[in-house]
TrEMBL record:
Keyword terms of this UniProt record: Methyltransferase, Transferase, Ubiquinone
Gene name, Swiss-Prot/TrEMBL: ubiG_1
Protein name: Ubiquinone biosynthesis O-methyltransferase
InterPro entries reported in the protein's UniProt record: Methyltransf_25, SAM-dependent_MTases_sf
Single Gene Ontology BP annotation: methylation
GO molecular function list: 2-polyprenyl-6-hydroxyphenol methylase activity
Length: 283
């Protein structure tokens, strides 16, 4: 497994998206093995991500998830999507990777859960799905792959029915600006949007020990203000913004595993946020 190499580049969206899709197609088999899908054979099992996010959403959805129509953007192999289905929601999962959606559909069939799956670029999601939802959900590790947050937020707003709720928990942009390989907290990558993508050549993935055939990916920095202002600009009302100290994956080898996720060493735990969470509504 090679060491990741990164550089800043200017690239159009379509070739960058296509390179990312090839990389995520390669990840499917690795993640299907590494995600521990056998745990879902237990009818009570939910993903750790959804357990945390459902609790964060509870104050805004006092009647629970039963019967809610939810659209999960960038759903990958569907473990979080199907966890919400287990809570009683009617789910639509959206992703640009055909192999990921095939794996998600196979898992749903095996578990006896119903969900719809839509293959599309998330920046075209509203036209591809052509429906309105009570909740649009984006799980962690998603928007760094997108170059245009205004277009993304417009999709979110179009997919929500009036009174609907949007939720996102994602890696904090300050976290993404850190050098993950250093023995101390050191900034290395841009925090602000520079108009350039970070091009990565990395044949590893965050789950599993295998390698991908297409190691080149492109990610974009988005400061927290850009995320918030994109949602406001799309007509949504911000109801809550939180920042968290734990992460569902090991961003840096120095992060420690706990029952709640990965954290920085104790002396650094209050110095840098790991995640942000936003709840917004459509009037």
């Amino acid at each position: 497994m090679s060491e990741p190499v990164t550089s800043s580049v200017r690239i159009d969206w379509e070739p960058a998206r296509d390179a990312n899709r090839e990389n995520w197609d390669d990840r499917v088999a690795l993640h299907a093995e590494a995600y521990g899908l056998q745990a879902f054979e237990d009818p009570a099992h939910l993903s750790d991500v959804v357990r945390e996010d459902a609790a964060a959403l509870a104050p805004f959805l006092p009647e629970g998830f039963d019967g809610l129509e939810i659209c999960h953007l960038q759903c990958h192999i569907g473990t979080d999507t199907l966890s919400f289905a287990r809570l009683g929601a009617r789910m639509t999962g959206v992703d640009f990777s055909a192999p990921a959606l095939e794996t998600a559909a196979a898992l749903a069939s095996r578990l006896g859960l119903d969900a719809d799956w839509v293959e599309t670029d998330v920046l075209d999601a509203a036209a591809a799905v052509d429906a309105e939802f009570d909740l649009v959900y984006t799980s962690i590790g998603a928007i760094c792959w997108l170059h245009d947050l205004d277009r993304w937020a417009a999709q979110v707003a179009a997919l929500l029915r009036p009174g609907g709720t949007f939720y996102i928990r994602d890696g904090h942009p300050l976290l993404y600006a850190l050098d993950e390989s250093r023995e101390e907290l050191v900034l290395r990558y841009p925090y602000f949007d520079t108009g350039e993508a970070q091009a990565w050549d990395d044949d590893s993935t965050y789950a599993g020990d295998g390698v991908v055939a297409h190691p080149r990916t492109y990610e974009w920095p988005h400061p927290l203000s850009s995320v918030v202002n994109a949602l406001i600009g799309a007509g949504l009302r911000i109801r809550r913004l939180d920042e968290g100290r734990t992460l569902p994956w090991q961003f840096s080898p120095r992060m420690l595993s706990t029952d709640d996720g990965f954290v920085w060493p104790e002396a650094e735990r209050d110095l840098v946020p790991c995640t942000f969470t936003i709840v917004a509504t459509k009037d």
